[in-house]
Design brief:
The structure is a homodimer of 149-residue chains. Chain A has 149 residues and is an alpha+beta fold. The first copy, chain A, is built from four helices and eight strands, in the order ββαββαββαββα. Chain A has a four-stranded antiparallel sheet with strand order 1-6-8-7. In chain A, helix 1 runs antiparallel to helix 2. The first copy, chain A, is globular. The complex binds threonine (2 copies).
Chain lengths: 149, 149
Amino acid sequence: MKVVSDSEVAKVAVLGVPDTPGIAASLFSALADRGVAAEMIVQSVMRGQVNDIAFLVCKEHLGEAIDVCRRAVRQMGAQGVAFDAEIGKITLEGADVAGDPGIPARMFSVLAGESVNIDMISSTEMNITCVVSLIDSVRAVKALERAFP
Amino acid sequence: MKVVSDSEVAKVAVLGVPDTPGIAASLFSALADRGVAAEMIVQSVMRGQVNDIAFLVCKEHLGEAIDVCRRAVRQMGAQGVAFDAEIGKITLEGADVAGDPGIPARMFSVLAGESVNIDMISSTEMNITCVVSLIDSVRAVKALERAFP
Ligand SMILES: C[C@@H](O)[C@H](N)C(=O)O
Ligand SMILES: C[C@@H](O)[C@H](N)C(=O)O
């Protein structure tokens, strides 16, 4: 397992999009037209008939991403755009998340022990990523490196 | 790139958890104590002072996962538990998501073209996963295999 961190990213969220086919397609096609790649895309379960779509972009693309999202919000009738450039992305690579339930439990417990709040979570079979605030990021990475040598 | 699908999973979401350090740790420690592994964990941005944590489990563990989450909801004062066993998980593996913004745009457009609604999204640098309803899953996989041969 390896702890990998990246603070050159910012998060953008389009809030309250209609949860109907074609919405994610039009948002990410508009981003692609402007050459804005999304490092991590997260959409959780819907609430009412709307949903939020959040993603990370490299800091240089933040301005363009916000611009694209603001236009999309007007076209779709969504609720708004939120963003935060003061974040750190921390990934535990090569962790058998789908096979060992102790891994996410330990990663989250290590962050809790450092009083680090977890802003976003995304995991696949072999990786688990947490987004935390930038001021917590260095402390969080050091604690995770101790716990997952 | 490879299209991989799995219909032996169910989704569980703990709704309206306090967005404070230690919450994710206590939920996933309780799941680990019962041997329930989470295949894909997704937490997006918070709304107000609360957040939702959603994850996929293999269908055999759904009952236990719901039980653990219902206890956690009472302990944390969260809003509730939602679940859905009629889902399909579809992953585009080996896709350079972080490098090529056309990939998520194309994947979502292919699903939109089939009128498939995307329930959840999770992506990392080299993978992108969509959760769709079970009735859409076979159609969605076939269309994605045509678009990403
Ligand atoms: C919210 C958004 O993902 C929508 N469900 C879609 O399919 O595009
Ligand atoms: C919502 C939950 O992830 C919380 N922010 C925590 O750190 O545990």
